[in-house]
Amino acid sequence: VQLQASGGGLVEAGGSLRLSCTASGRTFSSYAMGWFRQAPGKEREFVASISWNGFSTYYADSVKGRFTISRDNAKKTVYLQMNSLKPEDTAVYYCAAATSPTVVTAARAFGSWGQGTQVTVSS
């Protein structure tokens, strides 16, 4: 599956952004999706994941209550709504397709990755 992420940009602290990730290739609705991020000098970290049908979600503690992951299987798109952004949210954000339909958090459980989109939050 090929993934194309978009929606990143520069925003002030407290602002919002919505990332989108559109898939092409194998059946989108068959697998869970996730978002990860990587800040300069840091390792890639899990942000959020959503099950194949959208019924189950899981978030990193650092974004819980501020970020919302959702999906539209008809559009083959997964979203990450990011509210109350903080400077520490600055990173390149990657969407990924899991190898299973259920919510997962480990990077090794995701078989396909998008190219990343930059999110910069100014203080």
Structural summary, described in words:
- The protein has 123 residues and is an all-beta fold.
- 0% of the residues lie in helices and 50% in strands.
- The chain is built from no helices and eleven strands.
- The strands form two sheets. Strands 2, 4, 5, 6, 9, 10 and 11 form a seven-stranded mixed beta sheet that branches. Strands 1-3-8-7 form a four-stranded antiparallel beta sheet, with no helix packed on it.
- The mean pLDDT is 96.
Share of residues in strands: over 45%
Rg, alpha carbons: 13 Å
Q: Please state the overall shape, judged from the principal axes of the Cα atoms.
A: globular
Main sheet makeup: 7 strands, mixed
Helix-strand category: mainly beta
Overall pLDDT metric: 96
- Compressed to H and E, one letter per element, the order equals EEEEEEEEEEE
Enumerate how many helices there are, as a single number: 0
Helix proportion of residues, in percent?
A: under 10%
Cα-to-Cα separation, first versus last residue = 37 Å
Number of distinct beta strands: 11
* Uncertain spans: none
Features:
123 residues, mainly beta, 7-stranded mixed beta sheet, 4-stranded antiparallel beta sheet, 0% helix, 50% strand
